[in-house]
Write a structure and sequence with these properties.
The chain is of the alpha/beta class. 29% of the residues lie in helices and 21% in strands. Strands 1, 2, 3, 4, 5, 6, 7, 8 and 11 form a 9-stranded mixed β-sheet that branches. The radius of gyration is 18 Å and the shape is globular. 46% of the residues are buried.
Length: 281
């Protein structure tokens, strides 16, 4: 377990981590298709949101495709952003290092009749992402996946479904798999907010007291992450790691020096996905 040391609040993450070739466009690699959609929800009444569906070039409608749901989708799909998911998917699927996977990139909901202005905070994000319980899982399983299944042949095998998020999206992703391991069994959490925003600080204790669930978990955080009234992000992620280790979960924790940004998790994404999907083709 990484040791706790003095935080460097003035540190700039940009010099700490480097993107490797799989995070950039490569010659000869076919590109998947990314389509934008707008949806309203009954499970989160009065909300509207954008979501994007990535269809890999290798997708064959006669074969059920793996699924990966990613929170804060608008940022996750940017080719010059922290995570660059479509680029990484294209490269890894082309090389056979992850299965053919349909990506569903979902923005948090906004209460209102219209989408928020560009750059404006989506006002239902914390309700959806930081809350414990099965509501967000139900939103995915009852609304989003059925809608995407109208145009795509998606697997219903939980071993072939993954979910990922950053910060509050990280704890959200864990919550979905924790509540519904019958539907999602692979989790990626970057700088996860396992703190007391809406009660998520209880997870390490709950994990220790609950029969292990058949989920695989990747955690990433940096020792210069947030420390505020909700809690200490670095310590909370170390507590998550300790609980998962104690209960003998299939997990991996990567600690670093970074702050509350997506840079470390983004540079790790290709290797993270190889680890996550290592036994699925």
């Amino acid at each position: 377990m990484p040791s706790r040391r003095t935080r460097d609040k003035d540190r700039d993450d940009s010099g700490l981590y480097t993107y490797l070739p799989d995070s950039f466009r490569q010659g000869g690699v076919p590109q998947g298709e990314l389509t934008e959609h707008i949806g309203k929800s009954q499970i989160y009444p009065g909300t509207i949101r954008k979501y994007w569906v990535y269809t890999p070039a290798q997708y064959d409608a006669s074969q059920p495709a793996c699924v990966m749901v990613v929170q804060d989708g608008g940022g996750a799909i940017k080719e010059d952003g922290a995570y660059r998911f479509p680029v990484v998917f294209d490269n890894l699927i082309h090389k056979g290092e992850m299965p053919v996977t349909v990506g569903i990139f979902i923005d948090p909901g906004h209460v209102g009749d219209e989408l928020p202005e560009q750059g404006q905070q989506k006002n239902n994000r914390s309700v959806e992402y930081d809350s414990l319980g099965d509501t967000y899982a139900r939103f995915l399983l009852e609304e989003i996946l059925p809608e995407v299944s109208r145009t795509h042949n998606l697997t219903d095998d939980p071993e072939r479904r993954a979910i990922c998020g950053s910060s509050s999206g990280g704890i959200c992703s864990f919550t979905v798999a924790w509540e519904r391991p019958d539907a999602f069994r692979k989790v990626v959490s970057h700088i996860g907010s396992f703190v007391n925003i809406r009660g998520g600080h209880v997870y390490p204790a709950i994990i220790r007291k609950t029969q292990p669930k058949p989920i695989r978990v990747f955690l990433q955080d940096g020792k210069n992450d947030l420390n505020k009234n909700h809690g200490d992000w670095w310590l909370s992620n170390l507590q998550m790691e300790s609980a998962l280790e104690f209960m003998e979960y299939d997990y991996k924790f990567v600690g670093g020096e970074g702050k509350h940004t997506g840079l470390h998790g983004g540079t790790l994404l290709p290797e993270t996905l190889r680890w996550l999907w290592r036994d699925v083709r």
